[in-house]
Amino acid sequence: MSSNSIATLAKEFEITPGQVTSVLSELGVLFDGDEFVAEADELSIIKETLGEQRGQKVLVLAPGANVRDIAASLDKQPQDLIKDLLLKHKTPAQLTTSLAPEVAEKLAGGYGFSIKWQVAETKTEAPKKLIASTAAVKPISGAQHRPPVVTIMGHVDHGKTSLLDYIRKTRVVDKEHGGITQHIGAYQVELPEGKITFLDTPGHAAFTAMRARGAQVTDIAILVVAADDGLMPQTLEAIGHIKAAGVPMVIAINKIDKPSANPDKVMQMLMAQEVVVEAYGGQVGSVNVSALTGEGVPALLERILLEAELLDLKADPRGDFRGVVIEAKLDKGRGAVATILVQEGTLKISDSIVVGSAFGKIKAMTDYTGASIKEAGPSVPVEILGLNEVPGAGDKVEAAENEKVARAIGEQRATEARDKSLMTGKRKISLGDLRRQMDEEDVKNLNLIVKADVQGSVEAVRGLLEKVKNDEVEVKVIYAGVGQPSESDILLASAAGGIIVGFNVKADAKTKTEAERAKVEIRSYNVIYELIEDIEAAVKGMLAPKFEEHGLGTAEIRLVFKLTRAGFVAGSYVQEGMIKRGAECRVRRAGEIVYTGKIDSLKHIKQDVREMTAGQECGIQFENWTDFKEGDLVEAFEMVQIMD
Ligand code: GDP
Question: Per-residue pLDDT tens for 340-349?
Answer without folding.
Answer: 999 999 999 9
